[in-house]
Prior knowledge:
Helix content is 32%, strand content 25%. It has two helices and three strands; from the N terminus they run βααββ. The protein starts with 6 loop residues before the first strand and ends with a strand.
Amino acid sequence: MHGHTYEVQLTLTGPVDPTTGWVLDFGVMDIAWDAIAGHLDHTTLNDHEGLENPTSEVLCLWLWARLDTYFGGLNAAEIYEIAVSETAGRSWATLGR
């Protein structure tokens, strides 16, 4: 058994709110991300439902499903792309629209 320090890049798309100038407040993104990352941090990914084979590609799908549910109703923000790397800056798996 070995571990990784994953790097995840999340890109959202949607209309820019004319009042705030944002598609979505980064603070809202942080709240959603912290809840998911906190659930996974320092755990064995294989022990989580849907991550029995936690490849970067599978992790992209798993994260997309959970984050999409969260962002779906907020300012019509949608996930445009998720990229996951097991080694910072190398060997990315990307899932996008």
